[in-house]
Amino acid sequence: MMRHRLTLVALAATLVFVGQAHARSGGPPDGYCGNPPFQVTCEACHVNEPGNGSLFLSGLPANGYEAGARYTLTVILQDPDQRRWGFELTALETAAYTQAGTFIVTDAVDTQLSDHAGSDPDFLKQTSTGTYNGTVNGPVSWNFDWDAPLSGELVTFYIAGNAANGNGSTSGDYIYTHQPSVAPATTSVPAGEAPALQLVRQSFPNPAPAGVMASLQFSLERPSHVVLRVVDTSGRLVAAPFGADLGTGLHLVSWNGLTLAGTPAPRGLYFLNLQAAGQHLVSRRIVD
Predict the structure, then answer these.
(1) 3-class secondary structure per residue, 216-252
(2) What is the 8-class DSSP label of residue 133?
(3) Contact 152/195 with Cβ under 8 angstroms?
(4) How far apart are CA 116 and CA 139, in angstroms?
(5) What pLDDT shows up at residue 14?
(6) Residue 10 above 60 pLDDT?
(7) Which domain holds residue 222?
(8) Quick one: 126 and 86 in the same domain?
(9) Which among 54, 88, 74, 90 has a CA at the least distance from the CA of 174?
């Protein structure tokens, strides 16, 4: 029994050491950027409360992404008096939690990619050199390219940043998270060809209190299975108010402002994602 206990203690010590080494230099372990389903961040090892800094992702298209287009993005991290830096991010299709698009490493000195097969999430993070050891206060930044997905789904980026003091341990470090979402732009249609799914009218006031019905009127050029999902800015599914086969013509779907649990949705921004006929339409709604 004593031998087994000593073995477990040694294993635990090894895991702690490896975890600290990843967090300090070579990049955090995969899945430590707050992404679903476990939503773990670097705070699992670095236990301090957030400081007075900030974490931001720049370069996301303000009017939505074009399917398959390439965008140059930048992670920016700063914190007063800190002097070593790290980050990890992934991009997931909001409704399915699968990899959204493709990351391209454009700075192999400061960034690296954990590339996983199939639809499993990929994780971009800093290298040892990319910790910018000795750079006081920041801001520091990491650049990369992102090829937007072809699916036309709402995408959420899950990002965690570590503003460290460089003392070689997990004490005195501050963890920041950022979870921006980007919707697809209006689906392009070849000239002379009518889209199978068209938004006709958004009949709700915006912003509006929880409980006020949010309705989307749309037209179908051919019969299709129609799904309406509501997600928040963190990519979590809030409601799934409609799913059915519909025929050609005008239709109306609505969300009553309630969550999956039947409670009013909290204040904030929500995305109504309408899917039909192989196309997607995304409408924003603010609950005040």
Answers:
(1) EEEEECCCEEEEEEEEECCCCEEEEEEEEEECCEEEE
(2) T
(3) no
(4) 30
(5) 30
(6) no
(7) 197-287
(8) yes
(9) 54
Model pLDDT, residue 249: 86
Cα separation, 82 vs 137, in Å, equals: 5
User: Cα(230)–Cα(265) distance, rounded to whole angstroms?
Assistant: 10
Measured between alpha carbons, how far is 97 from 36 in angstroms, rounded to an integer? Answer: 7
Shared domain check, 263 and 174:
no
Does 231 reside within a domain? yes
Per residue in 115-160, pLDDT tens?
988 778 999 999 999 999 999 999 999 999 999 988 778 888 999 9
Is 174 found in the same domain as 34? Answer: yes
Per-residue pLDDT tens for 46-73?
A: 666 667 889 999 999 888 898 889 999 9
Q: Is the pLDDT of residue 267 over 80?
A: yes
Q: Same domain, yes or no, for 161 and 34?
A: yes
Residues in the chain: 288
CATH of the domain at 145: 2.60.40.740
pTM of the predicted structure, to 2 decimals: 0.61
E-assigned strand segments in 165-196? 174-178, 181-182
Q: 214 is written with which tokens?
A: 């949010």
The conformation of residue 136, written as its DSSP 8-state character, comes to -
Assess contact for 159 and 178: CB atoms under 8 A: yes
Same-domain status, 39 and 100:
yes
Element (H or E) spanning 77, and its range? strand 70-78
